[in-house]
Every structure is written in C-alpha cells, then in structure tokens.
Amino acid sequence: MKNKCSFLVKKLALLLLFSACACSPEGAPEKLLGFSTRAPVFLGYRVLEGGIMEFRFSRPVSTQSFAFDPDSDAELLEEGELVRIRVSAALPGGSRVSADILVEDEEGNTLEVLVPFRTRNDALPALLINEIRTEYSNPRCEFIELKTSTPGNLGGLRVMTAMLAEPVYEFDPVEVGAGEYIVLHLRKKDSESIDETGDDLGASTGYEASEARDFWIPGNTKMLRKTDGIALVDQDGKVLDGIIFSETSDPWWAKEEMVRFAGFLNDSNAWQPAGSPPLISPAEAFSSQGSTATQTLCRDEAKADGNGPEDWYIAARSQATPGSANSTKRYTP
Fold first, then answer.
1. CATH architecture of the domain with range 127-314
2. pTM assigned to the model
3. What's the maximum distance between 2 C-alpha atoms anywhere in the chain?
4. CA contacts within 13 A on the Cβ side of 19
C-alpha cells in the first residue's frame, strides 16, 4: 500500500510538472529536457548565376552533408540561415536536378531536405504567345502556340494559366531558333503525339501535330476556358508575355482566380491596355466572344507587341493555324 501511494504521488508530481510546462511560455519544455525540440525549418531556395544554389532556413545551420542527382561536384560556399553551394555539373540550362541536404543547428537538431530544381537558364529566347484555342471539340484539342524572335533554350520556361494554381507546363532544355512556332497541345490522346525536343520536327505524328515544334500535356483534362489568362514566366518569376481574356464585359470578375491573375499581369506590366485603370476588369481584357475550336484567338503578327487587347483578334471560321503563321482572315460578329 505504501509503495502504491508513493507511486501515485510521483505520478501526480510529474503530471503537475508537465502541466506547468504546457502553460508556461514557449521554450520551457525544451529547458526542462535540456535541449530544443524545435528543428530548423526549410523556407525555400533560389537558383543563382554561376551554378550557385541558395537554401534558406529559419535559423543558422551548419551543413552536415549534401549530394546532387545527377551526381555533380559541389562546393560549400556559405552556411548560416542561408546555405550557398556551387554546383559544377556541365548540364544544359533548365535541366532537372535534385539536391539532398542534411543540416544541423547549434542545439543539435537536424533536418534533411530533398529539393527538386532546375539549373539556371539565362539563354531563354525572346518569345510571345501567338495563338490560343480555348475550346475543345473532339478531336480538336486546346492549344497554346508560341513564337520566338531570337534563338535560345526553353529550359525552365513555365506556362501558367489564371484558373490553375500550378504551372500547366515547364519546358525541358530545348534549343530553338528565331522565328520558330512552338505548339503546346493541352491534351494528349494518342501514343503518336510525342514531344519534339530535337531537330526532327516531324517526329510527332498524332492528330493535329504541326509542321512546327510540338509538345503535349498527357491526359484529357480541360485546362483552358473562354474566361482565363496565360503567362510565360521565367525562373525568377518574371513574366515574359501574358494575355487575359473574357467572354463577358461585366464590371468585375466572377472568380477570385481571375482577380488575382489580373493583378499579377498588371503588376508585371504584362497587360496594360491604353487608358486602362490600375485594376484590369473584364472590359480591359481581350474579348473571347465568338471564339470556337476553329475560330482561335490570334496575335496580329504584323504589329509590335502592345501588351493589350489591340494586339489580338479572333480568326474567321476554320482558320486555326497551329504551328504556322496566323490567318489574316478575321471573324466578324
């Protein structure tokens, strides 16, 4: 009985002790145990020039180990809240790489992070969105056509839309010339539709494969709508080109995604119609009324980019031209 009472007293004392810790300011449990249970937090990374990777943590850390896939020689340059590592792999710009890093803070807490990223690509070509099909009519699938004005490497170029949170496509390293048309097909419905990453632009023989360079997004999901937007974004988040379009001229957007995207293009100076207010409404977007699977949204290739609806028109019926110059025949309501 005495031993039982002694056990109960000790148990009660422990409960009171940990209850006091739970109510005390942050850090009391760690002091009681003699070490910190709060591991450092990984906050993000950046790919810098010269093959330098920068990893950011919530507190100063020392680097215990690091490795890269593909296997690469690497040199630790700096550690602390920012860990900088130079990777010397001779990979094309925009190549897929993963980093496995183990760090430790001054209290002995460790954290291992696995980070997929792309090597730095500073050779993106100058390019514009050139033609868009928003409507699906089997077997015709939605597409986004790009046109280059300088040669370069597409690696790491991201295609984003207003209604989807993640980029719909990110290009692997592909060398392109000036004046090339690039067609990103937003569905893939047969095995003959393959990405043309080399010199053979006739490699893809799927339905509506063009004479230009074709890329395909697997699956059969609708990714673009008549009220939507598209942006081409580089590795630093800079918008290289963008368009926003609306099926209506309502006073304001019905969906929050469109509000955010309108602000994104406006802040990036990628859509600035003449005389438009600071906030882009459907009235300042390009009107997609009248567009169909064969009446696509087309850029006027004869004029300089003005970052506004005056750059665009809707092609006449059956005048969609994925992979070649836009038809000059225009839809008339």
1. Sandwich (2.60)
2. 0.85
3. 100
4. 6
